[in-house]
Amino acid sequence: MNSTADEASEFEFPIIMHREGKSGIFVPKISLTSTAPPMNPAFYNPLGEYKRDVLVHVVSSYAASFTKGVRFADILAGVGAGGIRVGNESRNVGCVFLNDLNRNAMQLASLSINQNGIGEKFIRSGEEANFFLSNHSSMEERFDIIDIDPFGSPAPYLDSALRAIKIGGILGATSTDGQILCGLYPNVSLRKYGGYSLNTDYCQEIAIRLMLGSLAFAASRHSLGISPTFAHTEKHYTRIYAMVTGNSADLEGKLGFISQCNACPSRSVGPVMIGVCPDCGSNCKAAGPLWIGELFDLQFLTKAAELRPERKLEQMFVSAKDEVGLPATFYVTDSISSRIGCSSVPILYVVDSLKGLGYKSSRTILDRKGFRTDACTDDIIAVFRSYTD
Ligand SMILES: C[S@@+](CC[C@H](N)C(=O)[O-])C[C@H]1O[C@@H](n2cnc3c(N)ncnc32)[C@H](O)[C@@H]1O
Ligand SMILES: [Zn+2]
């Protein structure tokens, strides 16, 4: 038996080597068969593979411009799937810190590191995540990239992460608080993220904006700013990536409210809430305070697409480039069709027709049937009617 096989035989629960991306990850056998992967003996969710594919590529794209390998910290690492894949697959990564309170998880991580032959890059620890970050807050200990991948909300870790990140570094954060961020519990959203959520067609975008808002308010407390790099959302989670800047004045004009009319598709984005719809005079409801600036960085997306990741990722980055510079919030085709009582209209027809009328328009990576535009509500509706006429 080789040493990895020796170590593997020492576990008191069944484990298996699972392939993800280009890496082999040792995981509890039960995490591959159970519908909800358990926290014990250690956490691994195979459904998170795409999220980690994106992470690996975001790190490569960010690190590409560095002359020296970057320092990456996976502070809630589970069995280490994210961090190990970054260390093994991302370009130009010098050092990966894996941290998790769960001892089984860190033992499995050790096995996977040996399996992939990448031991020289890794430092493991089993500390409480905020304690770990505080211990890395001196200038020479800080990280270029920190990933926060918790159960639920990343909010408890934001302050410590901001102390442990370099200026110009990237913070990645996941939320699995879908119901809170998508408007089912707006008061809980206010308590956890500092802004009210709202149940709308574009609630995935509101979720991203609430997370960015929460990070921006935290950054501002440390006299720092943020500049979002990328964000995406899947059924079970929302992910943001943002660069931390050295000046809280960068946040000027980037925090505000989204007001949505109760009766028509009209919405307003700005520094204050709007109580009455400018289009139809009905009452509006509002989300926020939240991030109202750009969600994606064009330079980053260009680099990410240039590095030619596998097709699905490349399409996502290329498609996201079209959204840069377009208004906050998207419309959903089926929702407009049902509101005006017409049959379903193909998304490409809508986008092309709006462009034909001289408006800006694009699809959005946040919803298969979502589109952005700077057109007024009347002209959007006219495009939908023109399809059935
Ligand atoms: C959602 S899982 C992480 C999943 C992992 N990032 C992945 O991609 O597979 C959250 C992890 O955080 C760990 N954890 C929870 N609270 C913690 C804390 N305060 N400090 C350190 N680890 C913690 C848990 O043991 C669990 O493994
Ligand atoms: Zn209205």
Q: Can you put this structure into words, describing what you see?
A:
- The structure is a single chain.
- This protein is an alpha/beta fold and 389 residues long.
- It folds into two domains: 249 residues, Rossmann fold (3-Layer(aba) Sandwich); 93 residues, Phenylalanyl-tRNA Synthetase, Chain B, domain 1.
- Helix content is 38%, strand content 25%.
- The chain has 15 helices and 15 strands.
- Strands 5-4-3-6-7-9-8 form a seven-stranded mixed β-sheet, sandwiched between helices.
- A hairpin with a 5-residue loop joins β10 and β11.
- The radius of gyration is 22 Å and the shape is globular.
- The model has no long low-confidence stretch (mean pLDDT 96).
- The structure holds S-adenosylmethionine (SAM) and zinc ion (ZN).
- The site of zinc ion (ZN) has 8 residues, from loops.
Question: Order of SSEs, N→C?
Answer: HEEHHEHEHEHEHEHHHEEEEEHHEHHEEH
Distance between the termini: 73 Å
Helix content range of the residues, please? Answer: 25-40%
How does CATH name the architecture of the largest domain? Answer: 3-Layer(aba) Sandwich
Largest sheet: 7 strands, mixed
Radius of gyration: 22 Å
State the shape: globular
The CATH top-level class label of the largest domain:
Alpha Beta
Number of helices: 15
Q: What's the CATH H-level superfamily name of the largest domain?
A: Vaccinia Virus protein VP39
Poorly predicted tracts of residues:
none
Enumerate the distinct ligands: S-adenosylmethionine, zinc ion
Q: Let me know the number of strands.
A: 15
Q: Which structural class do the helices and strands define?
A: alpha/beta
| Average pLDDT over all residues | 96
CATH topology grouping of the largest domain: Rossmann fold
Percentage beta strand? 15-25%
* Tally of domains: 2
Q: Which sequence of strands runs across the widest sheet?
A: 5-4-3-6-7-9-8
